[in-house]
Specification:
By secondary structure, the protein is mainly beta. It has two helices and twelve strands. Strands 1-2-4-5-12-7-10 form a seven-stranded mixed beta sheet, with no helix packed on it. A five-stranded antiparallel beta sheet has the order 3-6-11-8-9, with no helix packed on it.
């Protein structure tokens, strides 16, 4: 047990010196760390990185989907990391890289999507991302349109295209708008998809993100 030097004031000088020497040589007691509570141990899923989230990378010609149709249903270039998945639908879609002042939400480029016709289904551009199964995730995307219209944002299961972990229908217009939704993903891969069901409208897309959301039940 450590004793204060004040309490030793009446002890002989030699005894005090020995006590001081012992105190100097005594090893420091390491600080005790308290283990976190079980609820704190289970960390929230880490944010996942989307390939080319800012739409600044290469733009790839001949998007996947509808390439065998004459004339092709899908033409143009799609931002690296994404594909068109409209091959099942009765649509005509043109993709392009939009650059310059007044185009992108930020940076030098964004994705331009011209939906010329929709007979059935929707024009769809999507991107897959690896996630932690059972985690809650928040996905977002910036969208604007040439005139007021609707846009659908999906987080879906790639093995079951009609199964949505989360889905939101939003009104969009000429001003950039951040579309956001949140859902629990029970698979290791999720698809972030933008769907457009109205023709005669140009849409611009930029700055996608997916990150850990609120834990389920919070």
């Amino acid at each position: 047990m450590l004793v204060s030097f004040v309490a030793l004031s009446s002890v002989a000088g030699g005894a005090v010196s020995r006590q001081r020497l012992a105190a100097q040589k005594a090893p420091a007691v390491p600080a005790t760390r308290t283990a976190p509570a079980p609820a704190e141990t289970a960390a929230a899923p880490a944010p996942m990185r989307l390939v080319n989230a800012a739409f600044e990378g290469a733009y790839i010609p001949k998007p996947t989907g509808g390439g065998s149709v004459d004339p092709p249903k899908v033409t143009g270039v799609v931002a690296d990391g994404r594909i068109d998945s409209s091959d099942w639908a009765g649509v005509r879609v043109r993709y392009a890289e939009e650059m310059g002042k007044g185009g992108p939400h930020s940076g030098k480029s964004c994705q331009r999507i011209d939906v010329d016709s929709v007979g059935f289904g929707s024009a769809q551009v999507e991107q897959a991302v690896h996630v932690v199964p059972g985690g809650t995730y928040r996905a977002s995307l910036y969208v604007r349109a040439s005139r007021p219209t609707k846009a659908e944002l999906w987080l879906r299961n790639p093995a079951q295209p009609d199964k949505a972990f989360a889905m939101k229908v939003c009104n969009v217009g000429p001003t950039w708008q951040r579309l956001e939704m949140e859902g629990v993903i029970d698979t290791g891969i999720a698809v972030l998809m933008l769907a457009a069901k109205h023709a005669g409208v140009t849409r611009w897309v930029d700055n996608a993100a997916i990150e850990a959301g609120r834990p389920a039940g919070a």
